[in-house]
Specification:
By secondary structure, the protein is mainly beta. The chain is built from three helices and 35 strands. The N terminus is likely disordered. The chain has four domains: 82 residues, no CATH class; 92 residues, no CATH class; 78 residues, no CATH class; 119 residues, no CATH class. It is 6% helix and 46% strand. It has a six-stranded antiparallel beta sheet with strand order 9-26-29-28-27-30, with no helix packed on it. Strands 12-13-25-16-20-19 form a six-stranded antiparallel beta sheet. Strands 17, 18, 21, 22, 23 and 24 form a six-stranded antiparallel beta sheet that branches.
Length: 504
C-alpha cells in the first residue's frame, strides 16, 4: 500500500516557503529599514484576526536573522485557490521599528534682513560692509560670581627677602593689610576689588607708598601657585604728590613743655605726643592711630621743626589742620598744649612728592553661575564692549577669562554674543524622513497621534532659534502619508543652525 504524507490540517498559521526581504530605501544606501514578507498557509475556519503592531512569535516564524524584533504591519487578502479543501494562502508583512533617514541636499536659504526688526530680549549689530549680523542677548544676570575658589598667596617684601606673609584668597582688606605690613612697613593699604553682590573672593589691590626713590628698583615677590584658579600680578608705578608734609615749627626757640595730639579720622583714638619725644617714638605713636604716617624728622638747625610725612591717599583738600579724604574729616592735630621759648609756634602743611606702587593680584578667570546658560566652551560673552572667551564647566556654570583693566567682571553687563552669519547664504538642507507605525512606535496608537512638526516659517521664529542656539531648525514639513501598508512617513526639510554661521 502506498504511503500517504500529510502537512497537517493548518489549524495554526504556518509559514511556507522562504521569506522575502524588501529594502525600499536601498537606492539611498539604507539597509536598516527593511520589511520581511512571510507567506502563510492556514485553515480558513481557524484563522483569527491578528492586530497590526503585534510582535512576531516563534509560531509566526520568529524574528529576522538580524535579531530585530519584528512587528506586523500588513496582511494580504486570502488566496482562495484552496478554498475547496478549507485552506487559504496569504502573506504577512513584518518590519522592525524604523529609524529616521537623513538625506542631504543643497538649498538656497535666504536669511531675512533683521535690520529694524524688534524682538524682546534680543538686539543686533550689523556690518554693512560684509552684510553680516551678530545677535546679542539682553544681560544674562548671574546668580553668583566668584574670582577665587580656594588657596593662599604669599608676599615677600624687598627689605627682608626672608620674611613672607601669607594671604588667604578670601581675607578681607584689614587682615591682608596687617599681614603684609608685618613684613613690609611701607605697604599702607590692601583693597579688595569687589562689586555689589560679589563674594569676598575677589582680586586684591596692594599699595606701597614711599618717599625714598632708591626703593623704586626693589620689587617684592609674589607666589601665587597656591591659588585656585591660577593667579597673576601686575605692577604700576607712578611719581606724584602722594604725601602730605605736616610741620610744627617754633621760630627762634624750642619746645619746653606740654603735649600735642593727633586724633584718628573717626575721632575715637588720640595719640598724645610729649614735647621731647624722639622722632622714632613719635612715629610709633602716630602709626598706632593711623598707618598712613610714613616718617618723622626733627630738625633744630635753624628753627625747631617736627616734620610728619603723611600718605595722603586720595586727599582732596585740607584746612585748619584737618586732612580730608573723600570730603570727610580724616584727622586733626592739636598743638595748643605745647609750651615754647621762641617767638612763635605754628603748624603748616604742604604737598610732598613720593612714589606710589600698586600691585594687582588677580585670578585668571571668574566663575559665573547661571542656571541653563546654554554657553559652550569657545563662545564669546560681551562685557563692556570687550569680548571674553567662555569655558563651559557644566550646564549651570562657566568661566570667563579676566582681561579688563580692573581684572574683574563688570556686573551685570555681560551678554552672550553669537556668531556672524550672512544673508542669502547657500546652505545644505537635510531631508529627514520620520516613520511611524501605529501600535508599534512609542506614543503612537493611531495615525492621529503622529505629531505635527514645529516649522520655522517666519523671521521671528528663525531669530528665536538662532538666539537660543537651536541645533537644527525645520523649515518645511509634509503631512503624514502612508508609504507602505501600516507605515506612515513625514518628511522634514531641516537646516543646521551651525551651517548658517559665518565667522569669516
Amino acid at each position: 500500500m502506498a504511503t500517504h504524507y500529510s502537512d497537517g490540517d493548518f489549524t495554526e498559521a504556518t509559514p511556507t516557503g522562504a521569506d522575502v526581504r524588501h529594502m525600499p530605501f536601498l537606492n539611498i544606501g539604507n539597509q536598516s529599514n527593511y520589511m520581511i514578507e512571510r507567506f502563510i498557509m492556514q485553515n480558513i475556519a481557524s484563522k483569527a484576526v491578528v492586530p497590526l503592531g503585534t510582535a512576531a512569535t516563534a509560531d509566526d516564524g520568529g524574528n529576522s536573522d538580524t535579531g530585530d524584533t519584528l512587528y506586523l504591519i500588513n496582511e494580504s487578502p486570502l488566496d482562495q485557490g484552496l478554498a475547496a479543501v478549507g485552506q487559504a494562502r496569504y502573506s504577512r508583512l513584518w518590519a522592525p521599528q524604523w529609524a529616521d533617514i537623513t538625506v542631504y541636499d543643497g538649498l538656497s536659504f535666504p536669511l531675512p534682513d533683521f535690520r529694524g526688526l524688534i524682538y524682546p530680549g534680543i538686539s543686533f549689530a550689523y556690518d554693512e560692509t560684509k552684510l553680516r549680523l551678530a545677535i546679542l542677548l539682553d544681560p544674562l544676570i548671574p546668580e553668583s560670581v566668584s574670582y577665587w575658589t580656594a588657596g593662599t598667596w604669599t608676599y615677600t617684601g624687598p627689605v627682608s627677602s626672608t620674611e613672607s606673609a601669607a594671604v588667604n584668597f578670601d581675607d578681607n582688606s584689614l587682615t591682608a593689610t596687617a599681614a603684609l605690613q608685618a613684613v613690609d612697613p611701607i605697604v599702607y593699604n590692601v583693597s579688595k576689588v569687589t562689586n555689589p553682590a560679589v563674594d569676598p573672593s575677589s582680586p586684591f589691590w596692594m599699595d606701597r607708598l614711599y618717599r625714598d626713590t632708591s626703593l623704586a628698583n626693589e620689587t617684592p615677590t609674589f607666589d601665587l601657585s597656591g591659588l585656585t584658579p591660577a593667579g597673576a600680578f601686575e605692577r604700576e608705578t607712578s611719581s606724584s604728590n602722594s604725601f602730605r608734609k605736616i610741620t610744627i615749627t617754633v621760630t627762634a626757640g624750642d619746645l619746653t613743655a606740654g603735649t600735642w595730639t593727633f586724633t584718628s579720622q573717626d575721632g575715637l583714638v588720640v595719640a598724645t605726643i610729649n614735647y621731647d619725644d624722639a622722632a622714632e617714638t613719635i612715629l610709633s605713636k602716630l602709626q598706632v592711630v593711623d598707618t598712613c604716617f610714613d616718617s618723622v624728622t626733627i630738625d633744630n638747625s635753624t628753627n625747631f621743626e617736627i616734620s610728619l610725612y603723611y600718605a595722603k591717599r586720595q586727599f582732596s583738600g585740607a584746612g585748619n589742620g584737618y586732612y580730608v579724604l573723600n570730603n570727610q574729616v580724616v584727622a586733626a592735630i592739636d598743638i595748643t598744649g605745647l609750651s615754647h621759648n621762641g617767638s612763635a609756634i605754628a603748624k603748616a602743611e604742604a604737598a610732598e612728592t613720593g612714589i606710589l606702587e600698586r600691585f594687582t593680584v588677580y585670578p585668571s578667570s571668574a566663575r559665573i553661575t547661571k542656571a541653563a546658560h546654554k554657553l559652550q566652551t569657545g563662545d564669546l560673552v560681551y562685557v563692556s564692549s570687550v569680548n571674553f572667551v567662555v569655558t563651559r564647566i557644566d550646564a549651570n556654570t562657566f568661566d570667563v577669562a579676566l582681561e579688563d583693566s580692573n581684572h574683574q567682571i563688570a556686573l551685570p553687563q555681560y551678554q552672550p554674543i553669537y556668531y556672524w552669519y550672512t544673508r542669502a547664504k547657500q546652505v545644505r538642507s537635510r531631508f529627514v524622513f520620520k516613520f511611524y507605525i501605529p501600535g508599534v512606535t512609542p506614543g503612537i496608537t493611531t495615525p492621529a497621534d503622529i505629531p505635527v512638526p514645529a516649522v520655522v516659517d517666519h523671521d521671528y521664529a528663525l531669530l528665536e532659534a538662532l538666539a537660543n542656539q537651536t541645533a537644527e531648525i525645520t523649515i518645511g514639513a509634509t503631512k503624514p502619508v502612508i508609504i507602505f501598508p501600516g507605515v506612515y512617513q513625514v518628511r522634514l526639510t531641516n537646516v543646521s543652525i551651525f551651517d548658517l554661521y559665518d565667522e569669516s
